[in-house]
Design brief:
Layout (H helix, E strand, L loop, with lengths): L2 H5 L14 E6 L3 H4 L9 E5 L1 H5 L7 H13 L6 E4 L25 H7 L1 H14 L6 E5 L5 H22 L10 E6 L8 H5 L4 E4 L1 H9 L17 H16 L4 E3 L7 H10 L3 E5 H13 L2 H12 L4 H15 L1
Parallel strand pairs: 1-2, 1-8, 2-3, 3-4, 4-5, 5-6, 6-7
Helix pairs in contact: 4-6, 6-7, 11-13, 13-14
The structure holds phosphoenolpyruvate and magnesium ion.
Length: 328
């Protein structure tokens, strides 16, 4: 990292026109292996729990999961750690749980799979709740939510896990806390269901990677169509714009945790839309902080207005790059 980026690492994360912004990190491995820099971020905005599952030869036991999660929660006990429940299927296969489908990206993934296998979900949530005893910084997030009923059903299971663990620890003097529960906004259907979802959850987090893939009907890992996969597509930007407006209207906190939040051009457009919480790979955090400290939301809004009327991603990119050059 360049000196000018490192120099401002400990300064407040605010835009030139004084809009405060919160930055979190995306994590995937154990806290130790990740060697994550917790000092600069305000916590973990996305812990991809499927990663440790993918590195094993069988499902980790409740005890193994508990140990892993506790280590993660303890690594920053005063900061929120958002753990996403198992998001396998699609591009994230489990070697010991083969799924054969013609269309895996439109198939059995994320919360769909864990609702069909509540025993997997319950073990994981119990491990999270246990790991959180005495720390209290856990938040739980559900991946690939398409319908409100999936949230109701998942919450019912989380309550069940809560009662089971409560019974087990009763008499020990330990106190079990109910964590905040949120959902990923990454299936286009949710663009039209924010009012209903807001009644059910404590927070939202936009998965711009999958939202782009599903909105544009472009496989995010298929080289043949990779030129068509672009989060700067005007339709994706319009969707992101609508999500934050609706979430704000329904007073539900919203974060962006997809890759777009870790890109300088992306962060400027998202700030202009009204987002002020972002989660990203830790290696992007200080660079993004530098960008935030170098721009005004007022200017970013002028840019956003222009790009929302563009015809294609290429035009958007040109305008955004021009703006970035002007900022330095
Ligand atoms: C996303 O879809 O944008 C996201 C953050 O989740 P993942 O990349 O793990 O699917
Ligand atoms: Mg996703």
């Amino acid at each position: 990292l360049s000196d000018r980026i490192l120099e401002q690492a400990h300064l407040p994360c605010v835009t030139l026109d004084d809009y405060p912004v919160s930055l979190f990190i995306n994590a995937g491995l154990s806290a130790e292996m990740e060697n994550t820099n917790f000092t600069y971020g305000e916590g973990v905005g996305l812990y991809r729990t499927e990663v440790p599952f993918m590195l094993r030869e069988r499902f980790p036991s409740e005890k193994e999961q508990m140990t892993l999660y506790r280590e993660m929660l303890q690594s920053a006990p005063s900061k929120p750690i958002t753990m996403r429940t198992l998001d396998v299927g699609g591009d994230k296969p489990l070697p010991y749980f083969p799924i054969n489908e013609e269309n895996p990206f439109l198939g059995w993934r994320g919360v769909r799979l864990t609702l069909d296998h509540p025993e997997i979900f319950l073990v994981q949530v119990r491990a999270m709740l246990r790991a959180n005893i005495g720390i209290g910084n856990l938040q739980i997030m559900l991946p690939m939510v398409t319908s409100v009923s999936e949230v109701s059903e998942s919450k019912r299971l989380i309550k069940q896990a809560f009662h089971e663990v409560s019974e087990e620890i009763s008499g020990t003097g330990k106190i079990l806390e109910m964590p905040k529960i949120g959902v990923m906004l990454e299936v286009p259907a949710v663009i039209y269901q924010i009012p209903q979802l807001a009644k059910k959850v404590d927070f939202f987090s936009v998965g711009s990677n999958d939202l782009t893939q599903y909105l544009l009907a472009v496989d995010r890992n298929n080289a043949r169509v990779s030129g068509l996969y672009d989060s700067y597509h005007p339709a994706v930007l319009a969707a992101l714009n609508s999500l934050v407006a609706d979430a704000n209207l329904h007073e539900t906190p919203i974060t962006v945790c997809g890759e777009l939040a870790g890109e300088p051009g992306g962060i400027i457009l998202l700030l202009a839309m009204g987002y002020n919480k972002f989660s990203m790979n830790s290696h992007n955090l200080l660079k993004i902080k530098w960008v935030i400290r170098s721009v005004t939301v007022a200017q970013a809004r002028v840019l956003l207005k222009e790009v929302l009327s563009c015809d294609d991603p290429k035009q958007v990119r040109e305008q955004v790059n021009q703006y970035l050059d002007s900022v330095g």
